[in-house]
Predict the structure.
Amino acid sequence: MKILFYMPNAEAAAWLHDFARALPEADLREWQPGDTAPADFAVVWRPPRDMLAGRSDLRAIFNLGAGVDAILALEREQPGTLPANAQLIRLEDSGMAPQMAEYVTHAVLRYLRRFDEYQTLQREGRWQVLDPHPRETFTVGVLGLGVLGAHVAQAVAAFGMPVRGYSRSARQVEGITTFAGAAQFDAFLDGVKVLVNLLPHTPDTADVLGARTFSRLERGAYLINVARGAHLVEADLLDALASGQLAAATLDVFREEPLPADHPFWQEPRITITPHISALTLREESVAQIAEKMLALERGEAVGGVVDIERGY
Ligand code: NDP
Ligand code: OXD
C-alpha cells in the first residue's frame, strides 16, 4: 500500500511517524513538488492543487479534518482537480465531538449565567447582581445535526435548556426538537436565544449567519460560530450587535485566519475570539481511524465518512 502525505506545517514528521507505526507494511512518503510517482492513498490537510491533479492512481484521499471545504474549493475553481475515481473521506469525530461539546457548552453556560457581563462589571469594580436568564426560555438552536452538531446539541440539552437542531434531511436526535430543510428554517430560528453553527461550508450554507437570520432570533440573542468563517457576514454581525438584536458572539473561525491585527472584531468587547481551537484534530485518534479505513478499503469493504462531492460535505 503506497501512501502519500501532505500537511502544510511542522507537525508532518510526527504524523508520518505515527502512520508508519500504525501501518508498518505501508510504503509512506511525504509529498514534495514534482512527485508524480504512484500512490494508492493520499492523506492531506489543505493540499496544493499540484499534489492531486491528474493522479488517476489514487483510490482515496483522506482529509485530516471534518470540513472538506478547502479541498472542494480546489475542484470548484478548476474542475477535474480531484481524481474522478478517488473517494474523498473526512474525519468522523476522532475526538473532536467531545472537544466541541466542551467549547459550546462553556459558551452557552457563560451567556446563560451572564458571566460575560459579570466580567465587565468586575473590570469596572462594580458589585451588582443581574437578573438571571430563565433556563426554560433560553432556547439553543444548533445549525447542523451531523457528527458534531448532534453530539453538541445533546451535551447542551443535559443542562435543561430547550434545544433545537436543524439539518438538511429530517433527523431524530433524542431530547432535541428537530427541523429540516429550507421550508422549516424560519420555524427553527423563531424564538432561539443562542444560535450555534455547526454546518459544513458549502455553496448552500455560505453567509447563512447574516442579517436575515439574526432578525428571526429572540432580541438580545447570542451567536456561537464554530464551523467556518465563510458562514458569517461580518458586517451584519457588527450591525446586529450595535442595534442590540444580538447581545454577544463567540467566534472560533474567521474568513481570514489568523484574524488580521486590524480587524474590527478585536476591538468589539461583546465578541469573544478563539483561534480555531474549538475541536483540534487529534493525531492518535485520527491516525487510528484513517489506518483502519485504509485496511478496510484494502479488504474491499465500504467505509464511513465518504464525502458527497456534489452536495459539498
Ligand atoms: P457532518 O457532515 O457530519 O454534519 C453536517 C450537518 O449539517 C448535517 O446534519 C447536515 O444535514 C447539515 N447540513 C449540511 N448542509 C445543510 C444545508 N444546506 N441546510 C441544512 N443543514 C445542512 O459534519 P460535522 O458535524 O462532522 O462537522 C460540521 C462542520 O464543523 C465541519 O464541516 C467543519 O466546517 C466544522 N468543524 C470546525 C472545527 C473547528 O475546530 N472549528 C473542527 C471540526 C469541524 P444532513 O444531516 O441532512 O446531512
Ligand atoms: C476541521 C477543522 O474541519 O479543524 O476538522 O476545522
The two ends are 27 Å apart (CA to CA). The chain has ten helices and twelve strands. Residues 230 and 255 are 5 Å apart (CA to CA).
